[in-house]
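Researcher: We plan to redesign the surface later, but first we want a full-length starting point. Tokens attached.
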């Protein structure tokens, strides 16, 4: 496992900047009262850069004012925030378990429109919203030693367990002309199980996120919602 300093170097220039206060009522769910949702944070809305003067008063030897960008990808939300309150339709999608969940993609060049994290009454929820035609696929599983796609470099995370999500059928953001939300990290404050969700980029049509959890491995479920297309991962928090 890499040290925090090595991790920062590996992700220099890629990490999502800065926290923001969020109100995510728009674009979430149709039934705002369906769940007791305590918090929701978003990769997209956490992208706010904060610049502070350099420690020497803001000027270097050449007389040029310098600034230092700070990254604190932690965000909070009001108690009234909603986060995609829909439930899966029926069958196996409703069941929580510890085994790997996978679905083949029926599309390609899909884009990541947002990644949201929130707390419901009995589970924490991660929602990956997509743009483009066709259906994205997924592979969600626990890994003891997660690694970055392509490079194979080890991933360090702040929790006790790593639930790895691979979204398949995705294209490169720069080719799709959209904002890059495949890299960076967000730390929700009010979730019971999730301590961080971090993106590690994409490789050969596969975009990876690591959902860092506290405590023992927890049962989870994965399903799809539509209009817009979303992949939903629920992590059980109830005793």
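Model: Full-length starting sequence:
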């Amino acid at each position: 496992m890499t040290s925090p300093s090595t991790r920062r170097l590996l992700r220099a220039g890629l990490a999502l900047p800065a926290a923001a206060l969020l109100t995510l009522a728009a674009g979430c769910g149709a039934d705002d009262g369906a769940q007791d949702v305590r918090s929701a944070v978003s990769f997209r809305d956490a992208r706010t850069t904060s610049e502070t003067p350099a420690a020497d008063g803001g000027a270097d030897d050449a007389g040029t004012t310098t600034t230092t960008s700070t990254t604190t990808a932690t965000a909070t939300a009001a108690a009234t925030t909603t986060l995609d309150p829909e439930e899966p339709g029926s069958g196996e999608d409703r069941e929580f378990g510890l085994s790997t969940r996978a679905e083949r993609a029926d599309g390609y060049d899909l884009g990541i429109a947002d990644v949201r994290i929130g707390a419901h009454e009995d589970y924490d929820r991660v929602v990956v919203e997509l743009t483009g035609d066709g259906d994205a696929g997924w592979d969600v599983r626990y890994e003891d030693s997660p690694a970055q796609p392509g490079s194979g470099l080890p991933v360090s995370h702040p929790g006790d367990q790593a639930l790895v999500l691979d979204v398949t059928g995705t294209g490169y953001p720069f080719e799709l002309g959209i904002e890059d939300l495949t890299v960076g990290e967000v730390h929700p404050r009010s979730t019971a199980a999730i301590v961080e969700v971090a993106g590690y980029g994409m490789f050969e049509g596969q975009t990876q996120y690591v959902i860092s959890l506290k405590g023992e491995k927890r049962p989870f479920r994965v399903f799809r919602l539509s209009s817009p297309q979303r992949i939903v991962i629920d992590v059980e928090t109830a005793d």
